[in-house]
Task: structure prediction
Amino acid sequence: MNSTISQLAILGAAPSFAEPLHVGRPNIANRERFLERTGQMLDRNWLTNNGPLVQEFEQRTAVFLGVKHCICVCNATIGLELTIRALGLRGEVIVPSYTFIATAHALQWQEITPVFADIDPATHNLDPARIERHITPRTTAILGTHVWGRPCSVGALSEIAERRGLKLMFDAAHAFGCSHQGQMIGGFGLAEVFSFHATKFLNSFEGGAITTNNNELAAKIRLMTNFGFSGYDNVIYIGTNGKMTEVSAAMGLTNLEGIEDLVAVNRRNYEAYRTGLADIPGLALMPFDPAERCNYQYVVVEVEEARAGLTRDQLVQVLQAENVLARKYFWPGCHRMEPYRSLFPNHDLLLPNTERVAARIIVLPTGQQMSAKDISTICGITRTACRHFQEVRQYLRGREATAQASGDAHQ
Ligand code: T4K
Result:
């Protein structure tokens, strides 16, 4: 759908959408099945602590991913913390800054220093060529994030880890249902950690899973998830409460059963965006490898100001005025947030690609909430705003000047 400049909400028209369109609206595959499972759970009166639904979810997830072990947890942040501790990581760990803050915090929380390495601007994942310069005698591991569900350069990272005597694990929070060279993400490195947060491709309200092919590690993590208990009255490790509840597993299982439908919806939306944005100069929709399995959960657009006419931030303002709550993940990068900004004040100099990508990315709404018409409207707004970029820029500059003047007047 094409709109005209007079229809842009940023210039005073009514917003195109009466209700906000969010990035991260939860997907629910089959409400009736979920309620049925929840009813059975209440009848059993078994609500948490390794109940039958958690056990079933773990088994079916392990089969789906082709891994030996799956341990469900209450969220991926705790999952990362548990895995980091179970692997005995210390000192420094190399991570991307272009990731959600939880990746870095899971280390810092345990007084391990996250050392931020730059990304490959084409993949948004750790660039293997930029890792070795950060290795010091204190480095114990590499922690890669499969950003947007696109796999890290697993082979190259494994080679570096092996040659330099480092451990390798992955934050796979975005990557449930995605593959790398035909193998499902979940079995790479020593362990991988998925998020089943409400906003994720497969949600269990809050939740996550640690997957590994290592028997010893799995056994250790399983005990640590339950305070370190080994049977009644016997604690053998420091542990925490990382357990998933039964109601979360009921949602997770139901969504796992409906996973092909969830992918189909996301894929349909992704293709609609691809068609709708194709002819807008300066906007590049991030591609997925058609040879791999992919969950299409993130619709990621890179904005090149010189060709689009608008900056990423200006385009976000245009969309938000229309009630399209586009997001700037992962702006401004972990290294520009506390405590890392204070710990490493000049780290931006080492992360030129992170800085550049973080300043150019917009994530658009997808999932079951979106219709083809909604997406066509969003693409129409975007095209109109870019076509009339001079008027939009002028208006935004005027608005900023007014805000500045009224701020000054109040001082
Ligand atoms: N590693 C990576 C790479 C991650 O991306 C994440 C989480 C983690 C680790 C840690 O996983 P968990 O510990 O969370 O399992 C959101 C999510 O809270 C977070 O899980 C996610 N990454 C991150 C990318 O996005 P926010 O602060 O942007 O969330 P928020 O509250 O703004 O929600 C996003 C949008 O979703 C909102 O506009 C409203 C909508 N929404 C949200 C919820 C929760 C709904 O419509 N319904 C809902 O129930 O972090």
